[in-house]
Amino acid sequence: MERAFWKEAVVYQIYPRSFMDSNGDGIGDLRGIISKLDYLQELGVDVVWLSPVYQSPNDDNGYDISDYYNIMNEFGTMADWEEMLEGMHRRGIKLMMDLVVNHTSDEHAWFVESRSSKENPYRDYYIWRPGKEDGRPPNNWGSFFSGPAWKKDEAAGEYYLHLFSTKQPDLNWDNPKLRTSIYDMMKFWLDKGVDGFRMDVINLISKVEGLPDGTGEGELGDGSPHYMNGPHVHEYLHEMNQEVLSKYDVMTVGEMPGVTIEEAVKYTDAAREELQMVFQFEHMHVDAGEQGKWELAPWTLHKLRDILHKWQMGLQHHGWNSLYLNNHDQPRMVSRFGNDGEYRVQSAKMLATLLHTLKGTPYIYQGEELGMTNVKFGSIEEYKDIETLNMYKDRMDRLGGDQKEIMESIYAKGRDNARTPMQWNDGPQAGFTSGTPWISINPNYKEINAAQAVQDPDSVFHYYKQLIALRKQHLVMVYGDYELLLPDHEFIYAYTRTLDQEQWLITLNFSGAPAFLELPEPYESAHKERVIGNYSEAGMEPHFLRPYEARVCRLS
Ligand code: TEU
Ligand code: CA
């Protein structure tokens, strides 16, 4: 068993705009993060994944970078960043920065140059094409953020590709000069002491030659087969590994919409020298209809467990899983997969147990450790996320959609669910800011906040703290082989983790009702010693799990 820091670590994601505001402008910032490092140290996390803090016009809240070498003014200065890094390292916490290199902002100097003329040396840093004879864009690809993935630039007399917003032009990774510029930038941050990178949509960087039309009958087709896991993506990631990553002791995770297990094994097989782990998305579509995330569909434990099981088995001996149900792009897991009402605390703890006892590296998204929930703002004006606002406009204006139905989709799946400010206490603005927050605060902050959680031994926070501590004490949680039990149970997800002579049994009730538990032999009659659980041990019944009950037992 080859041990590795990044397999044993627990990662905490900070979305800086919403984490902590230190200067009263209503926007989270680096000095706000500095003021909360003791909180992170108490929780016990090993790594912070910091969403982008580089210069950006914030069309997509920092995922549209205009200068990779400087800190966004609203977030602070490079000196603040250096003080934050030093404070993390002093507490034994590593820093993984967000590397967004599939695209830049259209305000990046490279793009300003590139669009200025076809002869400009930066022209081929981006993907320019003439439109079709009939005036249509070069192909029929749709953007992730509604509308076409091409924008005509009059100055340049051609279209440029943008898989995301019109202010996020895609970089041309087929250009070796661009790749060298990216590698130089990565070295700049690694030389400053950064411990790793989370790589934004990194499996989209290689597009199929000729940029062929996507499938689909409408005016916009699905171009994803022509840019997901593209022809040169492994070549480029191996080159990045050889030119940069292999020269440092770093942790890497690639965010990969549409990645399959077969591809994930290739991206994360150590022998291939590419990345260490990936974020896959299959389980994030378990409650989506044919039309995508905004088409709400019921999910079942069968569907969720089948996906998680497939990935556990698929990467069991080659590669490594990233375990998450939350991030800045996803709704809050306790609202989506648990119960954010009567059983909020129990179900938040049950989902945490899942993420910390499956095989892989657990990722905690800010506020998840408090059991923070989704939000329902009173009007579309309170929503800020470009993905949501573009969809709303597209469906209302272009498709004459039903506003009530659209708002229901936003309540369930909108990214702003995860972007309401951290709830630090029950005081004004939840202790997030002394000013007016850039986005409204979830009104339930009076009951759900860090101050309450830290002093309550039965809080979700302390349960996370126990799970994280357990991981350091028991390598079976990290390296133990996973084996599924009860593959057909409607409400219970049950599995074992085995390392040498030690075997743990995990049983999780995903329903709000008691669930009958009968295990196959030898597990049924094995002696069980509870290691951790989200209910009192005294009330444990061998054949019933209480609503959203999680049990982790050592077998002997
Ligand atoms: O997200 C990539 C991505 O696929 C998202 O668009 C996600 O699938 C979708 O938002 C789910 O609703 C990354 C970043 O995490 C996201 O914040 C950025 O908006 C996007 O890339 C562009 O950089
Ligand atoms: Ca601020």
From TrEMBL:
Pfam families on file: Alpha-amylase, Malt_amylase_C
InterPro entries, per the entry: GH, GH13_cat_dom, Glyco_hydro_b, Malt_amylase-like_C, O16G_dom_2
Entry's EC annotation: 3.2.1.10
Domain Glycosyl hydrolase family 13 catalytic: 13-419
CDD domains assigned: AmyAc_SI_OligoGlu_DGase (cd11333)
Keywords of the record: Glycosidase, Hydrolase
SUPFAM superfamilies found in the cross-reference section: (Trans)glycosidases, Glycosyl hydrolase domain
Principal EC category: hydrolase
Catalytic reactions of this protein: Hydrolysis of (1->6)-alpha-D-glucosidic linkages in some oligosaccharides produced from starch and glycogen by alpha-amylase, and in isomaltose
Family, as annotated: Belongs to the glycosyl hydrolase 13 family.
Name of the molecule in the record: oligo-1,6-glucosidase
Taxonomic source organism: Paenibacillus lacisoli
Taxonomic lineage from the root: Bacteria, Bacillati, Bacillota, Bacilli, Bacillales
